[in-house]
Design brief:
Layout: E1 2-3, H1 12-22, E2 31-32, H2 35-41, E3 44-49, H3 59-67, H4 72-77, E4 79-82, H5 86-97, E5 102-107, H6 112-120, E6 124-128, H7 135-146, E7 149-150, H8 157-173, E8 179-183, H9 188-200, E9 205-211, H10 216-223, H11 247-256, E10 259-263, H12 265-279, H13 289-296, E11 305-310, H14 317-325
Parallel strand pairs: 1-7, 3-11, 4-5, 4-7, 5-6, 8-9, 8-11, 9-10
Antiparallel strand pairs: 2-3
Helix pairs in contact: 1-8, 3-5, 3-8, 5-6, 8-9, 9-11, 12-13
Length: 326
Amino acid sequence: MNVLPDLIAPTAHDVVEAAHKLKGVAHRTPVLRSSSIDEMLGAQLFFKCENLQRTGAFKFRGAFNALAQLDADQRERGVITFSAGNHAQAIALAARLLDMPALVLMPDNAPTAKMAATREYGAQVLTYDPAAEDREIICQRLALERGMVLIAPSENRHVIAGQGTAALELLEEVPRLDYLFVGVGGGGLLAGSLLATKAVAPLCRVYGVEPEVANDGQQSLRAGHIVRIPLPRSTIADGALAQALGPMVFDIAQREAEGIVTASDEQLVQAMRFFAERMKIVVEPTGALALAGARHAGLDIRGSRVGIIISGGNVDLPRYARFLAD
């Protein structure tokens, strides 16, 4: 098996290098405001809209940056990964742009729209039963059999660095943030955002936000070591159904994060409805984690400048409509 070197911890310099690699390839997504939410919370909120990124999520940043590091031999043999959706699409598109084959392992209950989009971007998709099979073991076996390079969704130096460019862009456009809220699944976006923020805005307090039923990161930071939870119960935030942070992500989060808070499904629906009704943008449940955390975690953000990373907008339209109608 070939694994892209990911035992070296990423640095803020890696985030800057990733920004250069992504220039002209990834969208520099807009930062939007809403006077209604500012008045509601008594704060100034700045929304970094990664739902408008290529493939509809921030994941394209890390995927392209990681694949761009590969040499000609590795590109010829191709890449393999595992993902519930957004990383899958990101790897598929990045591989197509860089002219290499891609194989993606997805859970058989992944959203239909995300699975279809991954195939449309050109990747081969295989499915597995998440209740009975270990995706990482399957991926490692396939990588060994086929000689492909395994690109993990979060626990990878270049993936983390690429994800951090979203926060870097936000801070370039909106300096002197007091808080930054970031959704957490595998934790790559949180880790990358922490590296970028602590380098250019060291006084900014960064919080991760997890679903209530998948709070492995919150438990880990409280315990001081990685806590692995059972397969999370159902949540509408399907992109954040992780069981444990990886060592690289955990080390960065433990060192730099203010903490990790949680949001309920009801709070995610409220945030999605706000985005649709007031800001006229489509945000998936996982993408709404950051705003839900800022609104409901009990932190006093009044009078503060608050960054919110909207991590994605890939929705199954019938399901999305039901969320907003209920």
